[in-house]
Description:
The complex is a heterodimer of chains A (192) and B (263). Chain A has 192 residues and is mostly helical. Chain A has helices at residues 2-14, 25-30, 35-64, 73-95, 97-103, 114-125, 130-160, 170-185. Chain A has one domain. Helices cover 72% and strands 0% of the residues of chain A. With 263 residues, chain B is of the alpha+beta class. In chain B, helix 2 (34-42) packs across helix 3 and helix 2 runs antiparallel to helix 4. The A-B interface holds A 59, 63-64, 67, 69, 72, 75-76, 79-80, 82-83, 86-87, 90-91, 93-95, 97, 165 and B 5-6, 9-10, 13-14, 17, 20-21, 24-25, 28-30, 128.
Amino acid sequence: MKALMVILLSAMLTDNFVLSKFMGICPFLGVSKKLDSASGMGIAVTFVMICATAVTYPIHHAVLVPNGLEYFDTVVFILVIALFVQLVETALKKTIPSLYKSLGVYLPLITTNCAVLGVTVLNIDNSYSFVQSIVNSFGAGLGFMLALVIFSGVRKKMEYADIPETFKGVPATLIAASIVSVSFMGFSGLFS
Amino acid sequence: MTYLVPVLILGVCGLAAAILLTAASKLFYVEVDERVEKISQSLPQANCGACGYAGCADYADAIVNSGAPTNLCRPGGADAAQKIAGVLGTAAAEVVPMAAVVRCSGDCNATQTKFEFDGVQSCKAAKRFYSGTGSCKYGCLGYGDCMSVCEHDAIRIENGIAKVIPNRCGACGQCAAVCPNSLISIRPLAKHIDVFCSSKDNGKATKLNCKNGCIGCRICEKKCPNEAIHVNDFHASIDYEKCTNCGECMKACPAKVIHSCEV
């Protein structure tokens, strides 16, 4: 149980996918303007990560490894991720149209979000068990959401800040992102 | 055999995914109002945003679902309004044709150059560098930021200042948004008389910087029979609601800065 907690918290904080591993930067910068779309995106990514892990793990160990097809991971995993993204998209369109609209192009872009493929591949690389893999994906998803939610708060403050003309827009956003990343570096060594 | 297994695995995975997705799309099927699609097709698809919505599809959606006015599409004009009305089965709303105007007449003959500018050749960059090279800091910078955003090819730089060709203009307002000196506005096409100066300096300072500037003498104000022209911030501006195109201000203006936009 303790080992699982360590995996969960380190995936969330010390090895935060966005702020420590530079994965999934595109939705991190794109969807963090508003709190509700940031949290919606976080939930969608978390859902896709968990589902993708739940399917890719058995596929890897039961189908690919016995046939000596480990090199096939990437192709099959991308297929599975694309499937779940498409599922989330159709489901969201029906159930929460406003969230579907505010996520816009970033919703299908979860398919190419390297954080999602990253977590499924890292689970295999770290030779986690099934439960550990699911917990790791959950932690990674929560970490992604945490980063987005924190950053959306920062960006809201930035709207009222008097930013020098040259830095307005993207440059200021990137600088703020780096500072948030620095704050997450404070967690390093917490669980070692 | 070496190739068969991976191909088979991928095929099975793909098939399973396809079946799942088909089931999901049946389960979560969303009915789309076919009128939205039809209205969207009758719009110009320029996605300019002049209507106040995020794009043509968004505007079409707003017309059907939230009762937005049908005459907001400026590039489409009366034509688009008619088509939309046809889809909705209502009478076409009246469309006032609009066009952009550049309120500056400080061309190269009227103004002096303060210095040579070798930086990025755009109005935005030049404006940041001591308000541009021209002697009048309110005037047209002449690097054609408006010309490059115009999707209708309706703006030309002539003798150092931007000129709008009214019958080409789609009145989308993109030029107005990029002009760093806010010289461009969207006005009713029919009211063709306008004041071609936006200088906020007093008469003497304006005249010093530009031969064609408005000196704020208020003669037009007195001559106008409809009280449609007023001098604020040392330059005249016209209230299009009241203007009747009589041309009295044009005749009276000593600086000849009021004239007709029609080419």
